[in-house]
Specification:
Length: 371
């Protein structure tokens, strides 16, 4: 029998969802059958799977060790990953031997949780700055050139860096990773820099995902575009995603022509902060938030971002590469603003603004262009 006591990062979700995370190689039909036959119980009683888990609940799984390992993808590793158990040992010093054992168990039993991957990302990815951190949230300033999340299995991304960073501070968190992983909540393109909001706990993730989905978090960007824009404006349109070429197209009409199955209404607001010699320094607010929205929407108005080789102007981009060694779109997520949050998990963020300074290259180009 295997027994799991529900912690704060497992609480608040349905039992069946938790079981699918714990036993990813088992089908849903099999799990419901095991629940009906009481081979899986909740607090010693028969369960349906729809129950909401509470902290302190106990889930008992009456499988053989071999069956459990088969469905969970966990098997004892022959040797300890380099560097990982140093963390488990240090956890034991701070939290007692039980903390070390739980951290070590998390490493041993779940090769799908690749501790070396997190350690590698934390050590390899440079320039990431912590803007804000509390019990539930971690806000990071991502440099251009780093993925927010993996595009391919072999990638190192901000998501892995985040978990590596948290494990460095609290190695005993390794025991939670099979069923809960901290994660980024808003994704930036690889070559877009700036603020990324991350949830450290399940409650933090749920709060950020809900507020972002409901557009209650205001997100602002800095960029420099070609051409001169002298007035604040709000533009709108329809965005179509070309999955094969990883491009989007902007149209003023929301038609449903063949090949345009994925249609998203978009709104973008911008305000000029400086205009000089055929260029504009803009602050842009995403009213909606879709991939490539700012880049494609401004390009669609005849004012592409400098350095944007996908949607931009060759003549402008060649100049920027020659004079400033700029090889990517100059786009920086500079600040986020939270609404009033009277109580609950996000109360510490109520009516607060978080900022990330423009990167050095951005400042150099802005200064050189007289902006």
């Amino acid at each position: 029998m295997q027994s799991t006591i529900i912690g704060r990062n497992q609480a608040g979700q349905r039992l069946d969802k938790f079981l699918r995370k714990l036993l990813p190689n088992a089908g849903s039909g099999f799990l419901y059958k095991m629940l009906r036959k009481k081979n899986i119980t909740l607090n010693g009683r028969k369960a349906e799977g729809s129950e909401l888990l509470k902290e302190g609940d106990s889930v008992h799984i009456f499988f053989s060790q071999e069956t459990f390992e088969k469905f969970s993808g966990r098997a004892a590793q022959a040797e300890k990953p380099h560097g990982a158990f140093q963390g488990a040992e240090s956890a034991g010093k701070r939290h007692g031997s039980q903390g070390a054992e739980s951290a070590e168990a998390g490493l041993l039993r779940n090769p799908a949780v690749n501790m070396l991957e997190y350690d590698k990302a934390y050590r390899r990815l440079k320039g990431i700055q912590v803007i804000y951190e509390d019990e539930n949230f971690l806000f990071l300033d991502k440099p251009a050139g780093i993925l927010s999340q993996k595009a391919d299995p072999g990638d190192s991304s901000l998501n892995e860096w985040l978990i590596g960073y948290l494990l460095q501070k609290e190695p005993s968190l390794a025991a939670e990773l099979p069923t809960f992983r901290p994660s980024v909540c808003n994704r930036l393109d690889r070559n877009t820099s700036g603020i990324v909001l991350c949830g450290k706990t399940l409650a933090g993730l749920q709060f950020l995902n809900r507020y972002i989905r409901e557009r209650r978090v205001r997100k602002f960007y800095h960029t420099i575009c070609a051409g001169e824009l002298n007035e604040t404006a709000q533009i709108q349109g329809y965005l179509y995603k070309d999955e094969r070429n990883n491009r989007v197209h902007i149209s003023m009409e929301g038609d449903t022509a063949p090949g345009r199955e994925s249609i998203n209404y978009i709104q973008t607001r911008y305000a000029p902060l400086g205009v000089s010699c055929g260029y504009t320094f803009l602050e842009v607010e995403l009213i909606t938030g879709k991939p490539h929205q700012i880049r494609a929407h401004l390009a669609g108005t005849g004012h592409p971002l400098i350095g944007d080789f996908k949607y931009g102007t060759d003549r402008v981009n060649r100049r920027m590469r020659r004079e400033f060694d700029l090889h990517h779109q100059l786009l920086h997520a500079c600040r986020v603003v939270f609404p009033k949050i009277p109580s609950g998990v996000g109360a510490a963020l109520s009516e607060r603004e978080f900022t990330a300074p423009d990167p050095e290259l951005f400042v150099i180009i802005r200064t050189a262009l007289g902006l």
